[in-house]
Amino acid sequence: MTTTLPTRAQALELYRALLRSARQFSNYNFRNYVARRATDAFRANQTLSDSAARAAAYANGLAELGVARRQGAIDAMYRSERLVVEKTSRPSGYNVYRE
To answer: In Gene Ontology terms, what is a biological process of this protein (predicted)?
Structure first.
C-alpha cells in the first residue's frame, strides 16, 4: 500500500483549517485548547523526516479536524454564556471620573 505524502500547501491548509475550527467555539477554554493542540502538534511534527510518519501525522491531523468540526457544531447548538474573563464591555453606569 502506497501513501501519498502531503505537500507543504496541504499541511498549511490543514493547520489553517484547525485554527479556523477553533474559532467556532464560544467557550474561551475550548477555543484556546483546540488552537493550542493544533499548534503543539504541528511544531512537534515539523521535523519529521520519515515519509510514513509524515503521512500518519497528516492523517491524524485530518481526523482531529473532523473531531474539532463536530464539536464546534455541537457547541453552536448549545451555546453558553461567555466567561467573566471574556466580557469586554463595561456595565452601564460604570464611568470613572478623575479630577
So the answer is: iron-sulfur cluster assembly
